[in-house]
Amino acid sequence: AGFRPKVVVTRNLGPDVMPLLYERSDLDLVLWPEDRVADRSWLLENIPGAAGVLVMITEKVDKELLEAAGPSLKVASTMSVGYEHADLSELGKRGIKFGYTPDVLTDAVADLSVMLALMAGRNAGQVITLVQDSKWPASPWAPFAFCGPQLSTTPISAKRTVGFLGFGRISQATLARLVPFGITDCVYSSNPTSQPTPSRDEALAKKHGLKSLRRVNVDELARESDVLFVLAPGGPTTRHLVNEEFLKKMKKTSILVNTSRGTLVDSDALGKALREGWIWGAGLDVVEGEPHIAADHVLVKEPRCVVLPHIGSATLETRVGMATLAVQNLLAALDGKEMPASIDL
Ligand code: DGY
Q: Ligand 1 center to residue 27 CA distance, Å?
């Protein structure tokens, strides 16, 4: 046999997807053998001379890794839609292609975003704990026990405004799911450098039968949202966009949901906002500093905060879709074909 380009894969992708790699006998597959995050030292040892690498969000694709790989590296492919763990400018400088997995996880994350909005509004964290701790008998049915703000419109709250910090694919899919709840108005903020899209917005408002859909500044976003979804990329430019100042402007009955990256929300500020009643509750699938979040974390301790361990895309169907697309991106680049989903560097 002749020379076989090496591909390094940092996680076993399961029985539905691994055959796509195993059947490529023209490639030298180097697979992290354990069912846990790949050791950085293993990656650095195995990357030299590789033509491709397939990573998870748990692996940094940085200058050190790219230098260790050397000039043979043609492609890095991540099994995620987020890519703040990859240094795009270092990849670009070296002419290395970069693949990611948009679209295939949009529905799963939108589903979970709605779930968290409902859970946070209806005090799910607190009441589930109560039952599990055998405290239900001490809190029998009472007229206003455990009441929270209703997500759907009612005769006494006929206007419901949903807000989005970031208005990409997942935000728009979340909005579509909320229309049957009677949402009347939508406000959103986008990256200030992005162009306004009035005709798209008009079409979306019409399609969903909304009274209004407006792009606003973050001030208005905080003030007007009954439920606010944080759905923007991570990284330094979006760090702590939701801080004390922002939270102070929100409605006392409002719900904050974060299903993007923990770094967008200042955890200490949110803890204070919940303790002091600036907002009603929060539903978080991501927390700054994850996965090192323990029971004594400022937000885990808050009864009005539901914290989940980053499971937004965790459906069987979606994870197979993401893994498949990550492999397709890797193989397309190695074969000199167009990648199904790549970032232009
Ligand atoms: C992503 O794809 O970026 C998610 O955070 C992991 O599913």
A: 27
Give yes or no: 85 in active site.
no
Given pLDDT bands bounded at 50, 70 and 90, which one contains residue 1?
low
Among 77, 83, 238, 313, which is best to mutate for testing ligand 1, by the most ligand atoms less than 8 A from CB?
A: 313
Distance 32 CA to ligand 1 centre (A): 20
Token pair belonging to 50? 């590789």
CA atoms within 13 A on the CB side of 25: 2
Question: Sheet holding 161-165: strands in order across?
Answer: 212-215, 185-189, 161-165, 227-230, 255-258, 281-284, 305-307
What one-letter code names the amino acid at 176?
A: A
The preferred substitution site among 54, 77, 80 for testing ligand 1, maximizing ligand atoms within 8 Å of CB, is: 80
DSSP codes joined into one string, 78-129: ESSS--TTB-HHHHHHTT-EEE---STTHHHHHHHHHHHHHHHHTTHHHHHH
Residue intervals in the chain for CATH 3.40.50.720: 6-104+317-334, 106-307
**ipTM of the complex in this document:** 0.96
Which pLDDT belongs to residue 63?
Answer: 98
Ligand 1 atom nearest 101 alpha carbon: 2
0.90 exceeded by pTM: yes
- The closest of 323, 228, 230, 241 to 279, measured between CA atoms, is 228
Residue tagged active-site, from 240, 292, 297, 310 = 310
CATH topology of domain 106-307: Rossmann fold (3.40.50)
Looking at 3.40.50.150, 3.40.50.720, 3.40.50.300, 3.40.50.2000, the CATH number of the domain 6-104+317-334 comes to 3.40.50.720
* 19 CB neighbour count, 10 Å cutoff: 12
- In 3D space, the residue among 150, 215, 144, 136 whose CA is nearest the CA of residue 183 turns out to be 150
For residue 11, the tally of other CB atoms under 10 A from its CB is 20
